[in-house]
Batch of 2 targets.
Target 1
Amino acid sequence: MEYADKTEKLRAMIEQSENIVFFGGAGVSTESDIPDFRSEGGLYSQQYKYPPEFMLSHTFYASHADEFFDFYRNKILCPRAKPNEAHRVLHRLEEQGKLKAVITQNIDGLHQAAGSKNVLELHGSVHRNYCVNCGRFYPLHYILGTEEIPRCECGGVVKPDVVLYEEGLDPDTLEKAARFIKEADLLIVGGTSLVVYPAAGLLQEYRGGKLVLINKGTTPYDNEAALVIGAKVGETLGKAWPSGQKEG
């Protein structure tokens, strides 16, 4: 099936659905110039003093906090990134009452920046930071404005509310995500290879027959999907269901 035929089929599936859930990964944000981890040119393909996955682990944060925050500020934070067509289309679908939830593995907050309200962030958000001692909240610009280990007025370290390697996902967020997926009549999965668990395991909750996979690479669920589109997420969603908004 040609790409145009696939986007037309996706349009028809969206048109016929009233309980859509979108599950997204790093490929949603790469069109906003946010680097991913595993693709060519991603963080894992670059050379660092330590492997990136170790530098983003709880162990590294606890034992090398200064180097952790250097890496985090320089490689993970992308404050100038703007929502792309994927984010805008999903916002439009939510406004139209078709999309019930966005479940994301991304931590950049771009879905909310585009206007989406019901966003379940499996891995946390760079926009939430808290003192490990007193719990005081700090926004993203506070972390960006520091050059060493960010500290609270009380002296405690200000830790990003993102899930590091070795840390568990929030059980309440996982439970909500599972419930939305189970009740969906159309599940659109975009920009993820579906190899990172426990997040990828959420797809096992889907009971419907309309699973759509939009990803430039293959996934373990390709044979179970009603539609597989090997292309960019924003480009594909924009062709199937244009947001009507211009880049800004």
Target 2
Amino acid sequence: MPLWLETTLADLRYAVRGLLRAPVFALTALLAIAVGIGATTAVFSAVDRILFRPLPYANEQRLVSVGMLAPLDTNEFMFAVEYFDLRHDPGPFEEVTAFQAGALECDLSENNPLRMQCLRVESGFLKTLGVPLAAGREFTRQEDIQNGPRLAIISYQLWRSRFAGDPNVVGRTLPIDGAATTVVGVLPADFETPTLARADVLLPLGLNELSERQGRAFRVFGRLKPGVTLAQARLQLEPHFQRALLEAPAPFRKEISLRIRPVRDRQVGESRAASLILLGAVVALLLIACANVSNLLLARVLSRDREIAMRLALGATRTRLIRQTLTESALLGGLGCAAGCVLAFLLLRLAIALAPTALPLLDKANIDGRVLTFAVAASGLASLAFGIAPALRRPASGLLGGWHTAGLRRNWLRQSLIAGQIAVSLTLLAAAGLLLRSLWNLQNLPLGLQADHLITAHFTLGQLRYGKPEDQLAFFNAMEAKLAALPGFEAVAISDSLPPSGGTRSRLLAVIDVEGQPRMPEGTGGLVTWRFVTPAYFQAMGIRLLRGRNFTEQDRLPSAKTVILSESLARRLFPNKDPIGKHVLSGATVIGVTADTKNVNLTRSDPEYYLLRKPLIDATFQNAEPPLGWRSAWIVARTPLNPELALQTLRGAVREADPALPVQMATMRGRLVQLTERPRFNALLLAVFAGIGLFLAAIGFFGVISFLVTQRRREIGVRLALGATPARIFRQMTFETGRWVAAGVMAGLAGAFVCSRWLRSLLFQVEPNDPYALIGAVVLLCLVCICAMAGPVRRASTVDPMETLRQE
């Protein structure tokens, strides 16, 4: 056996025996390491797919999203005319491709009907992304035409779940939305769209340059030529952008800009800041754990000072002693890593079960080889971090001449580690406090509606059975009649969209005509939301009617043209005037004004107007129900009944209308909980990390003070024998330990002040330097520190001087 291996094994056996002789020390250190490594590994596995892991595209760094940014959308897009212009002259791109904005619900209407998400993509879409198919081929340019052959590429998950991985699925004909569609390919298992939109089936986009109109919007992606930077690409795309501006009305041009960004930035969006903050929080937690273990090891080394001095006197080399100490640290790190990986797996499963959409791709996170490699590397660095100081420490000279001189030496390193733990803990507590206050504000935000006793049902009519407008209208007419007859409901209504989750129709304020008033001279005026509703909508939703009246059945006559405005829209269209009786939207009479609601998300409210769903199509009125407007709809019902019973009753009514129609049922309170899932996940996770860090810091603080009292027991006994009072000893020990706390608090306040700026994008109605969060964090930290030092300091003041002198 080589000498180095024999020596290493001997050091390892020595470390194992040492840990077995001190089980309390070993378990405490292992717990701290396991918690630090486990939390760090779990968070890394969650954010790895967002920030670091290569995307499933060839040469992903050259793949970008490109388009115009306008008030119509929060993401870049291109109209057909602009896209054709770019396709003819790609400029900085080797290839460009597009798909229709938004996935479409479609049905696999064979033996066991299945509701799917279909995405219309251009031929060459997968080739541009650099995605190889698991089987089959992509669409060709000749097939990607209007009224072309019905072709489909299915997802790997659909292939496995629906067709059991049948290798002969390529070439098979499937009834999608009632039309025979030939499967030409199967996507790879790791495929994801550049927007992370779910796609069970890809269908041809069907572009026709000769007949394509301005109205269709696309998401456009391009692969940059080798060596072309984003700045260069933007410069080369400027002519395209200028030509696109010429197609827009002159008043709107100032509000349109060009955007080009990497696909990863397009996918991550606002989640980048949250991911980095969570990762930074667990790294801080790991540092606290390392400082704690380092303090434990220093205490252990101090208790073995005479042993180490004796070994040095007998000829042991300094290198060998350092190696032994580092071997013990590495053993602790290895065992802590193993326990931490198990803990990380459990934490990750728990996070996915509680909040699967809190972060992008969180449901796909797992503990794989890449994450395990990170855990091993983190534990190795942690072992070095908490083992280096104890390993390099030298016993005092002359230690063999007396046993008690060590009690007079200063412990500045351990005190610095404790102050650092307190500082990091305070920073985490302040950050958690800011996010918790933000979450509180978000959950208690007035929405303009009454969410209690309100249940919802969402469904989309299948294309096969309800492909014609008259079939859709017949279904909703029958549905309204069934809902009106339901017992135990105060009000039941139907709408094509529902606040506060967005998904509404919208138009620019500048294009809304008001009788007797000129249109806006410049600018778009922002977006105006609008939706179709039935007469009981406002009563069911609990939206207050401020002026005028509600819709009635008389307003459903073909000749009636009525509209209800939100308060903010009425103020914009009719400043300092009564809007009731005025005419907008080509002759519609304003009959009422309602309170504003949060209709885009929980934090944003756009001006809004409401139109009445009519039981017949009126082609003479431009705001009548569009032919394809009611395949997707919401039912809202207000009831004093038990929510579960009410949901079952409502589900039964929908099934009576169509037993095969998939429907999603929920209470409004449940929907609001889902909408706050991401901020709740961030706040609670950071609060948990802060709590664990504070607990570890308190344990370390308690350990340091206890060890200091033990070291200074002789000194304290002598001082008491010479006349010092216990109260004076108590005050002095409190003052000395209080200095460490004060130093840590000052450093923590500085850290919190800096780090809180990074939280700005995650806060809602809370300033980064919010005094309540900072004061609360300081008070909590000081209370914990007081509790941690109370016992050891009290023991110091009760030392028996006679017993100490007898021991001497």
